[in-house]
Give the backbone structure.
Amino acid sequence: MLEPRLALANLALSSIELVDGNGQQIAAPIIGQQVFYRARWTATGLASSATYLVKYTVGGVSVDSSPLTLGNGTFSWYRGTTYASPGTHQVSITVDGDNGVAESNESDNTLTTSFTPVLPGDLPQRFTFPVAGVPHRDYSIGNYVDVDPRSGSREDFRGGPFQYDGHDAIDAGPATFGDQDRGVPILAAAAGTVTEVVDGHFDRETSMSSRPGNYVRIDHGNGWQTSSWHFAAHSIVVKAGDAVAQGQLLGLMGSSGSSTFSHLHWNVRYRGASVETFYAPTSYWVSPPTYQGDAPPTVMRSGISNYDIGSELAEGPSSVTVFPTAQNWSAWYWYRLSNLPLNARMTVTWFRPDGSVHTTVDRSPEGRQPSVWYWNIGTAWKNVPGTWSAAVSVNGVELDRQSFTVVSSGGEPEATIYQGSALIVDGRVTPIDFGSISAGAAAVERTFTITNRGAAVLTTALAPLPPGFSLVGGFPASVPANGSAAFTVRLDTAVVGRKFGEIRIDTNDRDEAESTFLVSGEVTGTAPPGTPVVTLPGPAVPYLVGSGPVVIDIGGDVSDADAATWSGAALRAEILTNGTAADRLAVRHQGTGAGQVGVAGGAISYGGQQVATAAGGVGTTPLVISFTQAATLPAVRAVLRALTYANVATSPEVRARFLGVSVSDASGAASERQVKRVSSMAGGVVVAVRPS
């Protein structure tokens, strides 16, 4: 009698299917789309613990499924592979690709096929670049899609170094965080409908992490979608459901979420799969951007200073350009390049006042290089008064030259602000956060240091602090040359609510007479009964520089549970940061019909009946609207929703402005001040939002 024997297992691959990123079968991918294949197979005779892989090989590049322990039955698995470059690609898919299972028949493990990608015939609109500004000056591209799907292997669409492993988008960013503070507009690359918005997260991240980011997703139709990531906090001007036009402002660049530096991460997807548009640039772009590796290098930012600025290059170092011979400073020159071509020759030359060369440094780096460089000549300048300069050239073409003056006596002050060892760049918009604290608890304090990098006494004066913050102890009236002085600010905990505002230090620094940065914090608890409540739930305020007034928040609301009347109540709107004489806060005239707000001089009407008088709103003077006996809750609410912002200068500054809006009732009880950011952009680009 023969003893029973266990039959050998078998894995039989029955079909392979080209699918999109959602797993739906397709005839062919479009050029640049990530290629997905589904394998279907039957397993018989396998032990329950048997584990194996499915190997997907496309164009000679192989990737595996996860280890599969599925037992017996019929199964399928689809996986993303390489990106579809032009031309025909051979495909081979093997079940048990690692030969981990002893089988009775190995010949039915593999199937082969091929595909040829097609042009994107259903793309509704070719893209325009999603960052406003001049390329290679205001921003540069740092990364493209990594088209090699293998972990640990990477290349961009040209086989170049502008990517990192697993990257699926374009990254484009400015020279410094200081540029982020000045505002870098992010635009809709094509018309579509906003499907998702997340805003409000910290926007000065410097490391990859799992922290949440600020982003906008847009559906362009026909299965096309773009995502824009890492916006500056509270700068997004659209909401889910909004229709957007090509070139319309979405918000401002930041470094929120998993991000090492300020930039836009812009991803294109078609039917759930990422797309590398530069495989067919004229099919995807109105005006295709130049490949970063082909772009002539430019210097985006540069400067001269007198201290080791290595740790401050991301923020933007403080400049010092007057060097007294009595000082023992080192002279430093720094610059940020838009691009350094592979194997290019970079030369840094220091020139004496008579034009002769003091020293020259040549570099011919291989592979991808950092974009920021800094050099120093120690104190070699000390015995040669006059104007020195430092210049950088690439392949013999001078790109930048900065100068500094060596003087035998005198000098200038130079203000620099720190929190601990971290530079607070002048005009910083990301608030220094005091955190959240319960009402009545011990106050939270933050200490800041004013460092005078110059050779003359720095005089200082602290402007009034924003509501909710106070000075602990004294404030230095001056800081000696090469010296430092500290001051401490407290978040007061007596009044519940979110606190926000600008700290401004006035100095005799010639190029930074005002040093400013923002602070924020929250005092939690319950407001006293009868406190008015104001809400401004809409997105940031979009403003096209030089255009007319824009409404601050069409969805604003106000309430006061115990208000028997609105007579004597007041609505206050103010510019909290960077206000100028050309700024305007006002109320939009709608008409005198039912439900309309009317404006005639300082008189405000609702439904044709005067309900308030308005004063101020010009320059930095707050707009105060005082309500009369005729005012009702619908009237107050309508006036709130008609508040507008504008700037009447012919060439206004595009600096960050934050607006504050609050209401006080007849008893004097005041609401928590609501803060709204104005996201501005230079003229020539659409910013009007069409609400859902």
Remarks:
- The longest strand covers residues 34-44.
- The domain at 140-284 is CATH 2.70.70.10 (Glucose Permease (Domain IIA)).
- The chain has three helices and 48 strands.
